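seq:
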Amino acid sequence: MKKEILTVKGYNTDQVIEEFCLYFGSDAKIVFSNESVRVVVVEKFFFRIKNDVAATVIFELRSQDIMDVHIIVAGGSDMMGFTFGVYKSMIKKICKFFERYGV
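struct:
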């Protein structure tokens, strides 16, 4: 398991979350939403190790243009416990999305 916390400032938070879901397409699903928190789960199957990796991304909205993004990635290991770097690959992909927002 690996986690990251990022802060996005100066962008419309609703638009960032919508673009995030579009970026990951059918792999991303909003599972919870209220005024100050949005929770998105991203799940991807890796054929190379024949296993799933899942990321829970929690968008904590502080204002209309400031939010904290909590990323937790787990899974992607085989029966022997080898991950082959799959969860690191997933967290890199998610962090790369946020690079366009100066994070």
